[in-house]
Amino acid sequence: MFWRISFWIYTSVSFILLVCAILRAFWYHVYFYRALNYFLVSKFSLLTLGNFVASLALCVGKGLQLLLLGSLRSREVEMLTYRTKETILETFLAMSIFREEFGVGFLVLFAVLLFFKIFHWIAKDRVDFVEETPNQTWQQRVRLSCLLFLLTVCDVSFLIYSIQKVALNGSSFFVLFAFEFGILLIAQLFAAVKYTLVSIDISHGGQWEPRTVWMFWSEIVSDLLQLCAYMSFFTYIHMVYALPLHIVRDMYVTIRRLQKHYTEYLRYKQVMATMNERFPDATWDEINRVDKTCIICREEMHHAKKLSCGHLFHPKCLLSWLKRQVLWNFIVWLPNSTLHNLVVLSYL
Predict the structure, then answer these.
(1) Which residues contact 342 (CB under 8 A, 6 or more apart)?
(2) What is the pLDDT of residue 154?
(3) Among 42, 85, 124, 248, which residue's beta carbon has the most beta carbons within 10 A?
């Protein structure tokens, strides 16, 4: 509530200051063109105009948020504030590279970039929220789909525009914005793929087996594309301008994610390779001695894998459960009795 009041106060004050700046220009110069010229050269007038444009952008952003996202959760607002501070700091570092080309055009493009980054962050968090809480209404799904589509179109448009500027005018700050919108496009495509996979899984009642594998490989492809973009931009800027320190942290984070995916893949292969040894096939007599219902799929078992504790599961059900878990760090070393408890608890 306090944030909403502050927002409308800021917008109203920005409008009043702009009106005062316009009246001030006409106070000193009666004729329109002289007043306009005075307005455009006055630092106070330009400052109030820029502030009013920023307030308009906030109004547009607020309208799009209410139309396509509804109210933001407290966690989304918190992460939004944190990421905005990080982006502004990184942009100040980038400005040191393009300080000779710094001007109104750079500030306008930076404002546009920050505007779209904010919606990319919210869209990503909202896709993660849908994955955690699948009981969304069809209206919410349609709105999120429209947002993802609009962001993809905008990313492609600004990327093409920046590349054309670089092709026509040579090296300039448009290289930075082409890189930034390229990174946004990669992240946006991954969010769209993830949302598609989550939607398919929801339509299958949360039991769509290929989802985990597709999600895993889409994350790897996304990180590889981002790393290629970082390396290309780093090399180009270092050769033409200076060392781009503002992307070193992002490069490191991307490399660490790829290393983590590689470790997860090795552990996954280890689990799959030892599955027949750790979970031997149950005999028909062992199946008849226990309840034939698989605790995972609730269907009758004609073929089963046996844990050392004596409990039985469908082979595909046990394999599917292993694939779905984000527990590769320690699941390899768990005893079968503990593993059984985890399986049962996750399907209660």
Answers:
(1) 325, 327, 334
(2) 93
(3) 124
